[in-house]
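Hi everyone, sorry if this is the wrong subforum. Our group has a chain we'd like a structural model of before ordering constructs, and none of us has done structure prediction before. Sequence below.
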Amino acid sequence: MTDTAPRPTLEAVAARAGVSRATVSRVVNGGDGVREPLVARVRKAVEELGYVPNQAARSLVTRRHDAVAVVVAEPETRVFADPFFALQLRGISKELTAHDNQLVLLLTEGRDDHARVARYLAGGHVDGALVFSLHLDDPLPGLIQRAGIPTVFGGRPGWSGDRRGVVYVDSDNRGGARDAVRHLAGLGRTRIAHITGALDQTSAVDRLDGYRDVMVDADPRLIAEGDFTPAGGEGAMRELLERCPDLDAVFAANDLTAAGALRVLREFGRRVPDDVAVVGFDDMLPVAEQTDPPLTTVRQDIEEMGRLMARLLLRAPDRRAAEQGVGAAPSSVVLPTTLVRRASA
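Answer:
Right subforum, don't worry. Here is the predicted structure as tokens:
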């Protein structure tokens, strides 16, 4: 065993720099009122001694924790299996890291987790929360609002109640869906089916509405409900082929759903795109480029959505500033989508 060397203290830094402890504290915590030559001496002493600020003590001074909670309203089996979440978390992580903030990941496996997450957020451990993949009956928005911390949501709000001050980042799901269906119609397809996502989420509802905007008189049997997973796509595709064997195109609510649908079409001997054209949504490259055939899909910039969520949260005025009327709340952002053409349609 070896003895652990004592951590350098503020007093040690002050002695090395030849300044007061209060001056070191102001420099380390980003305070004003210290002349630049003294700032340079303190920073040099910090580097020479390897001083690392005590985060707990620093938080008492700054009332900031340099940590952000990322709350995903899905079980861990879904989060770690779906590349959508990996891309969004990567964007969030990049932006937080660039601003020297830590990411604290919180997952909600079930209803029992909601109270735990709410207690954590209200406990003063983080400076704000990024929340996504909410479902319409999810109590998290209300719980987070009562926690009283700045929050940015991923996805258009769909819950009931007061939405004043709600900030979110989303993609143009309805417009992207319209582009997908118009593309299929432009190929001469007339029996265009739609496999929805989980309809307790606004993204799935918006994509269904986009489909209906184009297919105004569509046979209701051409719509089958999925859940944004490959298994959901497989089940819905079987249901559609049983009900409407003459369908000639499918717009799937996301790429994972489309991948499941492609497997079933191949199993039933349907050639893609000759017999049935298929379009997905997301353009997640690990999925869209590896399906057989490669998937035509609607691209949304998932990683950029994560970056923007973090950026908007970091711009939000802190609680003290808000109480004093200092700093304007950021506005919500809806990103455009684009159609990416590959071999499936």
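For your construct planning: The chain has 15 helices and twelve strands. The chain has three domains: 10-62, 67-171+303-335, 173-299.
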